[in-house]
Design brief:
- The chain is an alpha/beta fold and 321 residues long.
- It has one domain (6-319): SGNH hydrolase (Rossmann fold, 3-Layer(aba) Sandwich), CATH 3.40.50.1110.
- 31% of the residues lie in helices and 19% in strands.
- The chain has ten helices and eleven strands.
- The chain has helices at residues 42-45, 55-58, 65-71, 125-135, 167-181, 183-186, 206-209, 218-232, 254-268, 301-319, and strands at 6-11, 14-19, 33-40, 48-49, 94-100, 103-108, 121-122, 140-146, 195-203, 240-243, 273-276.
- Strand 1 and strand 2 form a beta hairpin.
Amino acid sequence: MKKQILKAVISGAVALVVLSCPVLAQQAGKSPIKVFILAGQSNMQGQGVVSMNGEKDYNGGKGNLVWSMEHSRSAPIMKHLKDAKGEWVVRDDVKVWYKIGRGITKGGLTVGFTGYGGKSHIGPELQFGHVMGDYFENPVLLIKTAWGGKSLYQDFRPPSSDGTVGPCYTQMLAEVREALADIKNIFPERTNHEYEIAGFVWQHGWNDMCTKPAIPEYEQNLVNLVNDLRKEFKNPKMPVVIGELGNGGEKCSPDMLAIRNAEKAAAAKLAPAVFVATHDFARPPAESPNVSHGHHWFGNAESYFLIGNALGEGMKELLRQ
């Protein structure tokens, strides 16, 4: 079934979302399974509130996903998230695998694949998965490897950077291998489980911004991270999308600006790669569920939806090359 999909037009530091005509999938056939690794810290985990609406803790539900689908400026382009009965759509052509503290959560793309478990939150994976699912005729697998409060400077530190390899780098590789080893159970309906690691998505930066020695190293550490992953997966041209640390909007602190510039500079050295601006997706705390959580985009579901969309459109841009 053809669906309308979103196209993020990325120009300089501005990412604008427009509605486009249905796009034909660019990859013919239905094998291999297209695998994308989604990595980072808490904003890749997903902090967008789905439906909680308590006045004290969730600002009466303003900015949660249910509210955003009715009242936000993006409401007209979010309708595909629910079916005709008002239930959350679950895609059978896009699967998610994510290992959290409670264990492994896996299944068809829908709300809830975050560190919280259940269906209480969303992250960028939701709309990223819809964009990829609409682009490919192949099935898609999203492997999330994200943990809150983890730096690139120490926790994700790659082998090519001086010093001790970060535990999150090691854990990321282990969990990707674990998910791929489980691919027959993730797609039990398929007989052909051939797969291809089709891309890497990075949404990160907060902890390094808060660690003075980490800031000047961020660009090179990110370049090293990607190059080490490309070597690990034997794919020197693995497409890479780097999402901006866009919390708070265009105006930001000097340290946040330094991380943004480092992300952009790293992408320029890593072709095929793209830096995706996200700061335009920030929403005011008064229109958001978690009014004191600026580090988590105030829990605003529209923000996470638009980030996921822009990351997906950035990946499509690379896949077309």
